[in-house]
Design a protein that fits this description.
By secondary structure, the protein is α+β, with helices and mostly antiparallel strands. It has a single domain, classed as PRC-barrel domain (SH3 type barrels, Roll), CATH 2.30.30. The protein is about 20% helix and about 30% strand. A 7-stranded mixed sheet has the order 5-6-1-2-3-4-7. A hairpin with an 8-residue loop joins strand 3 and strand 4. InterPro entries: PRC-brl_dom, PRC_barrel-like_sf. It comes from Methanoculleus marisnigri (strain ATCC 35101 / DSM 1498 / JR1). This is PRC-barrel domain protein.
Length: about 120
Amino acid sequence: MQTRSIIRGKDIEDYSVRNPQGEDLGTIKDVVIDTGEGCIAYAALSFGGLMGLGDKLFAVPWEALQYNATDDTFVLDVPKERLENAPGFDKDNWPTTAERTWLTGMYSHYGYTPYWERRMEQ
């Protein structure tokens, strides 16, 4: 898998996300930036529903996604069931703050250390 070191946020909207087994996990709708920390807090992944109706957005730690330059997709190494049980939010009601309790729960769900805790370890 080739990697890309930089990519514009607007260019990844609607990129497909798959797991390593090739199952479709949805599409990236946006990336959310924590302006206080100066980094991407999470990617918003659209999953479920039919033709955009009834789908939910799921916050996914940015570092959980790996870019696949071969077919311009992202790979998320989680089983579909874990994503189905992930904390999500309505596409018309995005979280508007970098609320640490909510973010910690989301990072923990995917098995990642939150970005602000990693910075303190350095």
